[in-house]
Amino acid sequence: MSELSLMITIVDRQHTRRFIEFYERSSVTKLLATVGRGTAASEILDYFGLEDNEKTILFSVLTGEVWKQVRRGLQSEMQIDVPGTGIAFTIPLSSIGGKKQLQFLTDGQNFVKGEETTLKETKNELLVVVANQGYTEMIMDAARGMGAGGGTVIHAKGTGMEKAEQFLGVSLASEKEMVFIVVKREDKNAVMRAIMEKAGLSSKAKSIVFSLPVTSTAGMRLMEAEDDE
Question: Is CATH 3.30.70.120 the classification given to domain 96-228?
Answer without folding.
Answer: yes
